[in-house]
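User: I'm curious whether this sequence folds into something compact or stays loose and floppy. Could you predict its structure so I can see for myself?
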Amino acid sequence: MPIADDSGAPFFEPKHDRMLRSARAFALRRLQPLNAMAEQDRDAASRKAVALLAREGYLKLLVPKAYGGSTAAIDHRAMVAAREGIAYASAVSHSAFAVQGLGAMPIAIAGSEAQKKEWLPAAGAGRAITAFALTEPGAGSDVAAITTQAKRTKNGWRLSGTKTFISNAGIADIYTVFAKTKTDAGHRGISAFLVSAGKRGFKVEKQQMLANLPIGTLKFRDVRLSVDDLLGKENEGFYTAMRTLDSLRPTVAAAACGVGRRALDEAVARANSRKTFGEAIGKHQGVRWMLANGAVALRAARLLTYRSAWLKDKGQDRVTVEAAEAKLYATETAQSLVDLAVQIHGAAGVVRDSATAQMYREIRALRVYEGTSEILREVIGSKVLHG
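Assistant: Here's the prediction. I'll summarize afterward.
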């Protein structure tokens, strides 16, 4: 173990430390084999991950107890601990866990009682797979620039437009889709809708990404929606999206911590076993200092991550800046730790099926989705300048 203390003190309670350890052990035992499965069939691997996570009770962390969840209110530190542990061993599984949360959280935040009763118990039990559709070909970080439109009709709405880079595309049963309902109002004219898979005029096109995850483009052509498919109040979808990202962004940082921890473990194992010039390479000062810097950075990343979730659990309504700090530092740190592991392994680190090469392919996206590093710096920098 590369770090002296694996606890999340002072931000974790003992139950969260236990959650992290049990999730990591479960992921190594049951979820790690899904990595190879995803090489052949990423959709099947993701569906299997959802089923296994549901069976073990992890998806119940994503919904309130009133709708089949494990706690009365969402325990953000439990979500963080679970995703960090899962990410240690399986990219497809921690993604499945997170996207189920991204799809369910808007319903928990803004849904009607009927919507909550229909979808949240199913999401928490793994009977329904969810998705969160916000990004478009011309609108990623600039959410106000989305062009997908929902126009009023006599009996509801007609949805037209394109979403892209949507996780769980093609395997989700329900999609939370954000569209303009007032075209000249910027972010104040965005509404959220629940769109069931299989709707006439709804088409999915798969996208091949660096990591083996079910991601694709969604195309809506005059998709008919009922008045009951509106999620929350009209023109308040932007706030639903931002509150959702506020709650889930710390788990992206947690995933980075999980991958970073695995990378550091792999680097330490290699440093202890690989010999050059008659001794283990870990005996060389250059390697020891690289590992020391990595261990300190990982510790800092974990504390920033746990703090952002702790603040949310303690009742702070918005943790936008704290979550941005955690995601920025954790994802950048994880990238450097994976690079460190590859470097210490040498040529063995870039063998395609090696753990280090797999992590190298997987880690890059974490610095992009749910807020690029550059956008996060803008969020943090604005706070620094203006308080």
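Summary: The chain has three domains: 14-129, 131-235, 239-386. Residues 237-273 form the longest helix (37 residues).
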